[in-house]
């Protein structure tokens, strides 16, 4: 475990800036080493342990690919809302999520990105939390969390919530892009995995789904 960690730090030090590589004489790509994805649990020879996740990302280096990416979400249900997502430096930079939601009950509400944009049965058919690295549910600042875990939004006494989140795991490009998936707002508070309830480690025990919307390329 310790050896692995120091190895990973060494790699990061060597590749702090993206390296230019050429694949099959195509246009130049940059090789990024993304360490923002945190830690995962591994089960080996019956022992449960943890390991850092280090993603090697090969991404085109042309201006179009490297320009900021944006997406938007219209939230419907018993609530109404609009969200904007912006990633300034794809593929590994952070994503900024802003927006305004109305029609909530006052107080905290679980706020997540779920697996699919399938709304054929409303918010129910969007699946579970988006979790490409197969981890347990957590808080946005936790190393071990679902990519879709964005914690809670808090509505005031008029039932309005402002969203202003900067996240390092949510991306709008590449195989783990959230574009085409769905935002879901819950009836109750997300306990961030700490509630001790049987669903705390999968959903944060946040209750029913009061609204949702598909993440669309802007
Ligand atoms: C790409 O961006 C750089 C830096 O902003 C600029 O100097 C260059 O002219 C751009 N190239 C194209 C093809 O737009
Ligand atoms: C969408 O969700 C419905 C209801 O859960 C399901 O029957 C259907 O197979 C889903 N569609 C796709 C393309 O997965
Ligand atoms: Cu959720
Ligand atoms: Zn989760």
TrEMBL record:
CDD domains: Cu-Zn_Superoxide_Dismutase (cd00305). The gene is LOC108680033. Its cofactor is Zn(2+); Cu cation. It catalyses: 2 superoxide + 2 H(+) = H2O2 + O2. Its EC number is 1.15.1.1. InterPro entries: SOD-like_Cu/Zn_dom_sf, SOD_Cu/Zn_/chaperone, SOD_Cu/Zn_BS, SOD_Cu_Zn_dom. Belongs to the Cu-Zn superoxide dismutase family. This is Superoxide dismutase [Cu-Zn]. Residues 80-215 form the Superoxide dismutase copper/zinc binding domain. Pfam families: Sod_Cu (PF00080). Keywords: Antioxidant, Copper, Disulfide bond, Metal-binding, Oxidoreductase, Signal, Zinc. It comes from the Eukaryota.
